[in-house]
Amino acid sequence: MDKIKIKDLEVYANHGVFPEETKLGQKFLVSADLYTDVRKAGCTDELEESTDYGAVCHFITEYLQKHTWKLIESVAENLTREILLTYPLIREAEIEIKKPWAPIGLPLQSVSVTVRRSWHEVYVALGSNLGDKQKHLEDAVKALDELEDCKVEKVSDFIRTEPYGVTDQDEFLNGCLCLKTLKTPLELLETLHDLEKAAKRERIRHWGPRTLDLDILFYDDIICQEPELCIPHVDMQNRDFVLKPLKQIAPYKRHPGTLKTVTEMEQELEERVN
After folding, report:
1. Is the pLDDT of residue 204 over 60?
2. Any keyword Lyase (predicted)?
3. Local structure of residue 183 (DSSP, 8 states)
4. Same structural domain for residues 54 and 128?
5. Are residues 132 and 256 in the same domain?
6. What angle in degrees, to the nearest 10, is found between the helix axes of 262-273 and 240-249?
7. Which of 13, 69, 241, 259 could cross-link 174 (Cys pair, CB 3.0–4.6 Å)?
8. Whether the Cβ atoms of residue 57 and residue 11 lie closer than 8 Å to each other
9. pLDDT tens-digit map of 45-67
């Protein structure tokens, strides 16, 4: 990926733990590595095909002067997020905030914090077998798309499937979506749980009936094994109600562990079942 680099932009702003820092203000130096594709801009020589670094500099200055935080960690985190939300061509940003006049009572050149954040590609499975199933799924898609740090990119058809695991319940309506997000895996998991709660999901029986079920299938190409979250989804290769709609929107997406495509997993499952 290409990079636009801004080095040591001087901003006088009011951030700090001590009252005199927030009242009197001080100088900060901001450096930014903005990762984007400049190929089209380079070929056309048109500014609108690139990210205007002058506009970004003014944005950084105005944003830091408009807000006040105690920690430069918060300055860096919030600024990076706002840059990614404001400039759609920027896929990833690394921001360094330097504080040359850090009041620690010792001689030093500066203290700095650097954060690197990016948009992530995530695939989520959706399911419902209670109430108005289609409305539950459509409401979940809409709610995710309306979140400031999530963008729904693709949604599969919703398909009717027989229940999995516990079969003495109504049929399911299932689908998959692809979204871009700034959230970490655990932050996204919490968001999905909040949407399930909003749909009045009750976790009474494992694999039992539910108004809304949202599962993270893939998050970029990471492999994550935490007590509360496993990515890729541990059982997706055995679930045709996941693979069929997922194949509609990502037929050649590869499982980072097995390196099999969604199409290959769906074909292998079909051969095992038949």
Report:
1. no
2. yes
3. S
4. no
5. yes
6. 150
7. 241
8. no
9. 998 899 999 999 999 999 999 99
Residue 226 shares a structural domain with residue 186: yes
Which residues, in sequence order, are CB contacts of 209 under 8 Å at separation 6+?
129, 130, 169, 170
The total number of structural domains in the chain stands at: 2
- Tens digits of residue pLDDT in 71-84: 999 999 999 999 99
Task: Give me the CATH number covering residue 133.
Answer: 3.30.70.560
β-pairing, 26-36 vs 229-231, is unpaired
Q: Tokens standing for 197?
A: 């709660």
Say if residue 206 is in the same domain as residue 245.
Answer: yes
Alpha helices (H) along 7-71: 19-24, 39-44, 53-66
Q: Of these residues, 99, 244, 247, 253, which one is catalytic?
A: 99
Q: What is the pTM of this model?
A: 0.91
Q: Tell which of 118, 143, 162 closes a domain.
A: 118
- Residue 48's φ and ψ, nearest 5 degrees, are -65, -15
Both 61 and 175 in one domain: the answer is no
Confidence of residue 164 (pLDDT cuts 50, 70, 90): low
Pairing status of strand 172-181 against strand 2-13? unpaired
Q: Quick one: pLDDT band at residue 179, thresholds 50, 70, 90?
A: very high
Peptide bond preceding 209: is omega within 30 degrees of 0, i.e. cis? Answer: no
> Which tokens belong to 39?
């190929």
User: Can you give the residue range of the structural domain that contains 146?
Assistant: 120-273
Q: Is 99 a catalytic residue?
A: yes
User: What tokens were used for 109?
Assistant: 């050149």
Q: Which one has a higher pLDDT value, 229 or 164?
A: 229
**Matching residue, tokens 């809409």:** 142
